[in-house]
Amino acid sequence: MSAGGASVSARGFGWHHAGRDEPAFRDVDLDIAPGQKVLLLGPSGAGKSTLLHALAGVLEDDDGEAALGRVTVNGTDPRDARASVGLMQQDPESSIVLSRVGDDLAFGPENLGVPRDEIVGRCRRALQSVGLDLPWEHPTSALSGGQKQRLGLAGILAMEPGLLLLDEPTANLDPDGVVEVRDAVVAAAEEYGSTLVVVEHRVAVWADVVDRIIVLSSKGGISHDGTPAEVLGRAREELLDAGVWVPDHVPRRPVASAAGNVPVDWQEPLLEACGLAVTRQHPSRSWRRARRRAVRKSPSTPIPAARDAVRATENVGLRVHRGQHLAVTGPNGAGKSTLALTLAGLIPPAAGYVAASEELRHLRDPAARVARTPPWDPWAWASGQLIARIGTVFQEPEHQFVRSTVGEELVLGARLADGAGRRHPTNGQTHDGEDPEARAQELLERLGLEHVKDANPFTLSGGEKRRLSVGTALAARPRILVLDEPTFGQDARTWANLVDLLREVMAAGSAVVSVTHDHAFVEALGGEELRLGNYPQGPEAQATEAESVDAVAGGEAWTS
Amino acid sequence: MDLLNNATAADSGLGRVNPAVKILLLVALTVAFLVSADGVTSGSGVLFLVLVMIGSRIDPRNVLVRLWPVFTAAVFSGWGTALLSPKTGDVLLDVGPFLFTADSVDAGIAIALRGCALAMISVLLLLTTDAREIGDSLAQTFRLPSRFVLSAVAAFRLVGIMITEWETLAAARRARGLGPDRGILGNVGGFATQAFSLIVQALRRASRLAVTMEARGFGAGPRTWVHQPEYSWRDAAALAIGLGIPVVAIGLSVVLGTYRFFH
């Protein structure tokens, strides 16, 4: 059994990464008693994650100059106390070490030299407490992001650490999962007597269950330290300014429905999905060829797909309208992201079809110079045709960065889009459409990224990366914008920015489809909500009907 | 990727043989076939290995489909050998620069068969063994440093993740207007930049994973192992059959007087 909670003590503590001008954080004085539950807050860039890593003893101090002041865990250097500390990082994928669930859970206890007979029991208990019911041999690669986060947490609980350090442990979970995992953490901490330090943007989740809130200041040191009621009372304005999600505050309220004001020609849907089943599995080369041929033969009448694959979800019917928001919600692992990629024309369906309307195919826009009209199937479009019609923003912004500066990233989409201005080969002047450089400049200003125009996209802050990734899609002026979990891990400021930006996009007549767990976001953007149910995995699993609120299920093909 | 998915093969007879035995057999059989350069030894070896696959319910056709590049390479190395080895014996074909004699063709066939045999030995081990099981045996039976072994096992998982990541990056590039429809030059350049992004992502992931491993007590001191290698009658049988293959193959070749050592 665990030796109970660990104590933490810091005096003038700071950390100065080699090669940086300023320390990540400094002048931190604190004492955390064994068993205390602490929520650590602060603006982005105040060094919260670095502080957690330092407490876990996993930061490298190569030249001996990085660590400032003194910190101890249970009276010793954190490096020597590693066995009694469990750290969970933000990225769920990197909280898993091995390829089978049981092996991964056992990894920590094995390293600590826990007797063999005890390990299996510990693992089973840890798995239960995070609400995962999986066999030992289950492959970790088959888990969804939220399930990975739970498994990573279980892997730490199995070590029965005296100090639990969690960096945004519920960022990737659905709302029910957030409460479930939070309760599991608190129950485990109380059962083992562990000390708990959590970093989390969303204060409301933890405020009621922690004993103490510590606020790191961006200027160094601690600006507030006390019980949740005290700190939230005293520091509310400061926290709001810092973009922290303070309880009972929504940065953007829902707007009154604009349904009455929608122009008549916006009422025809842009995109329709019918009897759609989606999968991550690649079709064979021969299937892809046959499919492309079939679509070419029938350029205006949709043909349902049919192939064998493990389906993420099925029986989805929906319509995407100009100027409107369609939210796709549902629990972790329900197939939301796969559905988004299918709607965006990036992967082919397993059954049913996604079809573009005449309007979306022809891009009825006097400014656009369209070479040829693509068929109804977005998956069959050339990439230039695709980005001018449907823009996609991935969950992980870094996946989409392909140029070395922010400015070039924004020019790229504007240049490659179908109908973009072509540069004259000799005089360099742009004709027949919009100048990509001008479009990029306009976006830089709108997104507030002018000051980082020449910076490498990978060096931006989390909020800037998110804005840039939306900007790269908008550069091509898509009629539909598909976003996968756009608000994950974002602070309240970036969140409000994003809502404003998307409202503008919709007001200009584009449709927005977003996959999200975020109720406030869905409410702020309005529109319809398509809720996907839990889809049972495996070939023998029974199909469940996707529960849809406002969207159409099935229906006749309307383009024929 | 299918090649690394050993879920079905792990249920086969060979899947339940202790990995330590399989590693020993891999070494023994590889050495035995590497030093034997005649067609009879390699040919009978290939035949026996196919029988082993069938006996442990692995479809040899699946292996052929998955590993066709390896077998193609074996055939080409045989072709090259037949073309370049000393031209003794009867002339079989003489067209321009191509001169094949009975002996050179014999040597070529032997080399091709040897390549096939060596490939099949490795495949039989890899297809039927989980990375963690190999790690357990290397660390516990062969007493290799656990730090080194576990790092390798964790890295093995990253291979699968990188394959998924590659697909995500391809989709992300298409969503940026850089899909695989921009001509040959565009596609070659696209492949290079996509590979670079993959490497960047892999390095970042590896460093985060290293932090996770350390945070989970990796290298903290003496460790225990949940899985301990167990030995059963299967292992004795596998060892006997496995060692029997080169013994019978080489014996047959010696009796027929065709055995050649090394070259």
UniProtKB/TrEMBL annotation, chain A:
Region of interest called Disordered, as start-end residue ranges on this chain: 541-560
PROSITE patterns: ABC_TRANSPORTER_1 (PS00211), ABC_TRANSPORTER_2 (PS50893)
Residues in ABC transporter domain copies: 8-244, 290-559
Cellular component annotations (GO), alphabetically ordered: ATP-binding cassette (ABC) transporter complex
The keyword Transcription regulation is annotated on this UniProt entry: no
Gene3D superfamilies, per database record: P-loop containing nucleotide triphosphate hydrolases (3.40.50.300)
UniProt keyword list: ATP-binding, Nucleotide-binding, Transport
Cross-referenced Pfam families: ABC_tran
GO molecular function: ATP binding; ATP hydrolysis activity; ATPase-coupled transmembrane transporter activity
Family (UniProt): Belongs to the ABC transporter superfamily.
Name the record gives this protein: ATP-binding cassette domain-containing protein
From TrEMBL, chain B:
The organism's place on the tree of life at top rank: Bacteria
Subcellular location: Membrane
Protein's organism: Rothia koreensis
Membrane topology according to the record: Multi-pass membrane protein
Transmembrane spans: 23-51, 63-85, 105-127, 148-164, 237-262
Key words, A-Z: Cell membrane, Membrane, Transmembrane, Transmembrane helix
Main location: membrane
Identification of the protein by name: Energy-coupling factor transporter transmembrane protein EcfT
Cell wall biogenesis/degradation as UniProt keyword: no
Gene Ontology CC, one term: plasma membrane
Pfam families tied to this protein: CbiQ (PF02361)
